[in-house]
Queue: 2 jobs
Job 1
Amino acid sequence: MAAIAPKHSLPAPFHEYDLDDAFDEMVDRDGAVRPHYRHLYGALGALSPDELRRRQQVADLSFLHQGITFTVYGREEGTEKIFPNDLLPRILTRDEWARIERGLEQRITALNLFLKDVYHEGKILNDGVVPREIIYSCKHFRRQMRGFHVRKDAYVTVAGTDLIRMPSGEFVVLEDNLRVPSGASYMLVSREVMKRLFPELFRQCGVQMIEQYSQALLSTLRALTPQGSAQGSSEPTIVLLTPGVFNSAYFEHAFLARQMGIELVEGRDLVVHDNFVYMRTTAGLRRVDVIYRRIDDDFIDPLAFRPDSSLGVPGLFNAYRAGNVSMANALGTGVADDKAVYAYVPAIIRYYLNEDPVLDNVETFLMSDSTQRAHVLGHLQEYVVKAVGESGGYGMLIGPHSTAAQRDDFRRRVEADPRNYIAQPTIRLSRAPCFLDGTVQPRHVDLRPYILFGDKVTIVPGGLTRVALKKGSLVVNSSQGGGSKDTWVLD
Amino acid sequence: MLSRVADSLFWMSRYLERAEHTARVINIQLNLMLERGSKSDDLDWARVLRSLGVELPPEDVAGAQVLAQSLLHDASNQYSIVASIELARENARQVREQISSEMWEQLNRLFHAVRRGGSQEAWDARDFLQSIKEGAHLFQGITDSTMTHGEGWQFIQAGRFLERTMSLSTLVGAHFHEFHQTGQPSAERAYLESIGLLRSCTAFEAYCKAYTADVKPQRIAEFLVLHPSFPHSLRFSAEALETAIKDIGREAGSRRAARVERIAGRLRATLDFAQIDEIMGGGLEGYLGEIRRQCGQVHGALYQTYISYPIEAALEA
């Protein structure tokens, strides 16, 4: 990856800004600043490094004081970390966003049709478009959901789809997070901080609003109120169900509940009686209509799923099946974001919508296919290998950055359980300017927009841009040294 | 309000009140032991433990000083200051979103200060004990001035004053048992101990304003049990408890509130309409025991009404 020298090297604080073969969000191939980055570029040049550092400190303190932390699993002490937030916004043009928005709406619509089909007649399986064995061997497939009518067919109510930008500048989908995606709170908080730090720039650029997210989420949840809810015309009771204070995303749960003005409950706050769900309040039991659950399927009801779960609510699944309470997301959506099913999403879109996908997939090799497996195992160094049911950057091998021992380990794992793995070529994610050590340097980024599906599809412009803060790193997950950035979609 | 939240706020407050009370009592006791020049430290410590409600079997008395030491720093001792503050913080953490940031920060500061306090000898712990007391006072002040005085705040009040009523009655009972009934210690000793008791309730100065420094057992009892407006008297605490419980009933709007309100009202009336000479005549210890029994009933009724009620009862309502 030899650095391509810009035609004229950039002045401070950009003097360490180099270009390579990844797409650069701010600078074009010739080293000229892209038009939609000009305001930011100008503003940064006009500010002294000390002033930039001061603003970075203000931002850091603001995150610290709000207690915006996440938990890293697998270590004992000091597991609670401040979420690193980069000072500089990532900027998208209106046209870039319009395409992304169209692509995401198409994708969520198709995926919800797919889930309904898979849990009912299974036409797409009968027609051989998606192999039956991939579905039935998926560990997130919930046979308990077969034949059950999900309110408004909204299986996936909240999705957080990860997009990356190819060296060509084209956005493609890296993965669909359709179970309990997190991060929307970081998007909202970092926007608030940015407005305080760069009010002038914000106004000059004309940035599209995202503040309506909580309101839109609430309306989407409200749309799921069960039919014939005993409370009739009065306000439905909506709650956010959290695993509790020890969960890595507890800050987000509390934040969103507060923003929406709904109760933040734990499993032990809910009881099921005669297939109705109630929450225990000091004023007595209150009937619950919609649960925005941030607990995985497996843990939601010890009677229906894992009996050792103490986080869930015994009897909840029966109340759900009886149609007395709605849950977002529905149970069993994980079958659609299995990384092996992902490979079929373009076909799924064509099957249900009879349209070409607006956003492409990343080329994906199924390890369950012996030809593809042999090819990948012969060139492990060039591929990223991922376990199909994992998320958060856990359980993956990045070929170019791996050791021989790690590759051997993964080779054994893949051969032992091929269905559990896929491989993708290593992609140079695009790079965006970040403020690091007093200078502006490019780092690899992705983009996670949040998609809401209720009576209609709502996507707030932008989303969470995640950054691999380590130089050269391609891993953006917060658990693996990543941070976030505010994302500006220009009007 | 969620029952779980009410539960956490209530216990956060009880544990903090307990930590402060324990710190105050031990601090005063250290003072007294200096003045007494006593040789029987273990016996003295055994008495302190009793006044905090920790009953020792006679054969354990010899270990009383070790136990007293653990009352400061031993997190595995459920009566210790460290354990109380840890539990207060743990309860607060469960409802982090329901209390103000200022409250959380202060409780956190106190928690870290207690952990840093390490394993000092009790004799060197005076500053430590003082800082617990101040830290707890600061938390109460912050709570009163930064949190909405709604239902949650009322549960905090209820926890604090229920704990105070119980711990005060234990303390006063132990004192009178020791110095005014059995064996009649010297007048000098009784005087010293009486002042110690008043100080343990931060009541010495207030007592002097009411009765001058003329320290008499019956007056002390009257002051600590029946004074209407001194915040560390039983009557004041029971009234504050009843007020909180009535306010909770109004806020929660529960139709099942009548029972707990009646029980809290009876506790308050037991203190409101009592005469000190009748109490002393009938036996102070027995009277205080009755107060504690009623406190237990208030706690039970509060939980049955608002927190751990059976589902069936709530569905009928």
Note: Chain A touches chain B at residues 65, 67, 244-245, 254, 257-258, 263-266, 268-269, 271, 273, 278-285 (CB under 8 Å).
Job 2
Amino acid sequence: MSTAEQSGNPARALEITATLSGRRFGLCGFDGEEAERVSRIICGINSLAFAFDESLLSESARICDGMVIKLAGLGPEGQRAEATSSSPILVTASSQALLQGTAAAYGWPRDFMNEPWSDAELLVRLFRLLGPPGGARAVATGKARVDPLVLVADDDPDLTALVEATLRNDGISCRTTENGLTALRMAREIMPDLVLLDVRMPGINGFEVLGTIRRDPGLQTLPVILLTGCDDPADVVRGSELHADEYIAKPVSPNVLLNRVKRLLSTHSRSAARWTRTLSGGSAGGKGVRRWSLDRDSHAGALEQA
Amino acid sequence: MPDGLEELVPPYLSSRRQEIPELKKMLADGDFARLSIVAHNLKGTGQSYGFSDLTMLGRALEESAHSADGPAVRGLLDQLGDYLERVQLVS
């Protein structure tokens, strides 16, 4: 039973879970034990939690749907980043700190929670902060997203034109780029629902882009289809080792491509709760990388120290 | 070709026709690396646009360019030009 369900109001719990499910939350300023507590609560409503060092606060706020920050755990650099971030942020602090107005005068989505706080309060605050599905993205991009968004990276404009037309015909929005570096930048900016990635591209190739995506806490669960004209079986192996979700050899029929994209979008959406959660140490005080795996049905989580 | 995508085909064929002189110049310059890239793209898109012969020719062209086999590339470019002259869209 999740924390939301334990709150005693099933309808409210359902609404909260539906709204917050599948989001990405960044944690900052918490010590190891507190970070684990917040992570467990967030994982319990099928969302992802990542702990960041305060030096990465601005970057992490940009790639997450919302942040949970412990004010007392931040130094001057983190407080400055927190104060200037336009992302939705839930700040936890003692009453005294809040009264002193440490985090005053915000024009951005911000909420404050007195310490100590309860698990249910955290979820209710996050729910209020983010609003309905798409709300956080609307804040970040100025526009709510209704259709799935696919990023297509391929240096052949004839191929990207065909892929874009195929997906748009089926109500799937597309953004395209012809090189790997731009693909990475765009992935961080637009947070697509899926990436179609050519292997042979100028700048950095598709394998390098995929490897970077899988190492990036904000992107690592992003579904990626490698779309390539390389026939070498070694490429398939390498794509698999880098955890590509699919590998499609060109030439591909538009119908087959569309089918694979829709299937992966659907599968990814359903299996969000089985994603691997990665918590990095940073100011949370942990060392190395801790991995969460969570059973979707039972909500049972397992924590490993790598 | 799925419904709604037919309009992409004429410009695709037109681009391939315009590419032939460029490919011949690459061959004349001995620029097999660029030839290989164009051939690779032709291989990857021909069949997707409904022209499996273009994919076949692209594959052969890519292999010949990789081997820097000038005579083979010249022969394949002639075949490609001939095909693009003959192919017609039937609505």
Note: The interface with chain B takes residues 156, 158-159, 161-162, 165-166, 169, 200, 229, 250-255, 258 of chain A (CB under 8 Å).
